[in-house]
Design goal:
8-stranded mixed β-sheet, Rossmann fold, alpha/beta
């Protein structure tokens, strides 16, 4: 089959690891023809281009900057990308007939592109991989009001996107419940779980922890808790900093933070002013180096702002489970990531309000069989979050068509 995938994530090599590249690689390896449409942001100084590499077609579209830019340019980029994607598809893929139209959120503004593709390919199945519930998440973070013109504009777009989708694949049971409850115009039967998923790394799970810890000047024998990923408003960085504050004199564990984002400077300012002995911060690492660092640590950390009313489900969980780490999740009460961890015995949860609660779940974890919890998480990953699970969720609709 011919499958087109629309995404805001810049993809130039399907052999890279990630939830989207792993899924596209699965489709390719199953014999399908893959067409990936993704941005060439302005900062790369590259024109729109179509190329075939490793039996995958990459249509990289010149856009404004989307990632790591100011909010004005990002907003304009997301509004313009619809026309840019459509124009590029018309020019470069005009003679290709598609069987499946895949797309992920963010953004919710690809409506005209999807309408165009569905009109051109009336028998094609349109499938939304829902990774972001916008604009409600922006309301939760007080970026704009639920009564504002911006909210009404984007909510209208969101509804249009859902109505265009033959199926909506959600990250977790709480996501399915939320979308069903807040969008009563939808047939509940089209809403299902298509989880964040990965292919397991071919590298050995066992690595030279000593060498890696020395490389990053980390303690050799002390348990290390690692957080990796975005450092911005969704992660509730003020709460993270307050947790580091209550933990900074602890000598029985070490905290490593790897990432970047809009609130990185706030976090780093605290770090430089306090110079805690039990905390290390790295702004960026390659995916390969990051995965090795995770494997040399003992606990994976997940943070979400407590104001969220939508059930986020961060994909960074997957790298922790793959490394066999138990997790500690400090989130809002609506995300089910902590509930799933506790019910399946691979982690503990607290609400991201009181830093003392975070300290308590650290103590609780250290009293537990951490090795067994890590093994439980790895088993849960294999049983629930493999690329084959997401692939099967999508393919069953094509097979039954």
């Amino acid at each position: 089959m011919n499958i087109i995938f629309l995404t805001l994530v810049r993809i130039t090599n399907i052999e890279d690891r990630g939830i989207y590249t792993d899924l596209m690689r699965k489709f390719r390896d199953e014999g399908h023809n893959i067409y990936i449409v993704s941005p060439h942001e302005r900062k790369y100084k590259l024109e729109t281009s179509l190329q075939n590499k490793d039996n995958v077609n990459y249509l990289n579209v010149k856009t404004l900057n989307i990632q790591k830019t100011n909010i004005i340019e990002k907003g304009l980029a997301i509004l313009l990308i619809e026309k840019q994607f459509k124009r590029a598809i018309q020019k470069h893929l005009n003679n290709v007939s598609f069987d499946v139209i895949l797309y992920s959120t963010p953004p919710i503004t690809l409506i005209d592109v999807i309408k165009y593709l569905k009109k051109r390919n009336p028998k094609a199945i349109s499938y939304l991989l829902l990774k972001d519930i916008f604009p409600q998440n922006a309301v939760d973070l007080h970026i704009f009001s639920g009564k504002s013109i911006l909210y009404k504009f984007f909510r209208k777009k969101e509804i249009q996107l859902y109505k265009l989708s033959d199926f909506i694949g959600c990250m977790s049971p709480a996501n399915v419940e939320y979308i069903t409850k807040h969008n009563s115009f939808l047939n509940p039967q089209i809403i299902e779980i298509a989880p964040n998923s990965i292919e397991l790394s071919e590298e050995e799970r066992e690595i030279d922890r000593l060498t890696i810890r020395k490389k990053y000047n980390l303690p050799i024998k002390t348990p290390i808790l690692i957080y990796g990923g975005n450092i911005g408003k969704p992660q509730g960085i003020d709460y993270l900093i307050s947790c580091l504050e209550v933990c900074k004199k602890k000598e029985d564990f070490h905290i490593v933070i790897v990432g970047n984002g809009t609130d990185y400077e706030k976090l780093y300012h605290w770090y430089k002013n306090n110079n805690p002995n039990n905390t290390s911060i790295f702004k960026s690492l390659s995916k390969k180096d990051y995965d090795k660092l995770v494997r040399s640590c003992d606990v994976g950390l997940i943070f979400l702002d407590h104001h969220f009313t939508i059930p986020n489900f961060p994909s960074r969980l997957l790298s922790y489970l793959e490394a066999g780490l138990p997790i500690l999740a400090a989130t809002d009460i609506n995300s089910d990531i902590g509930k799933i961890a506790e019910e399946n015995h691979f982690g503990y949860w607290c609400e991201s309000v009181k830093p003392s609660d975070f300290l308590e779940i650290i103590k609780k974890l250290f009293k537990s069989d951490m090795k067994q919890m890590g093994e439980n998480g790895y088993t849960y990953l294999r049983n629930n979050y493999m690329t084959s699970h997401t692939y099967s969720a999508i393919m069953k609709h094509i097979i039954n068509q």
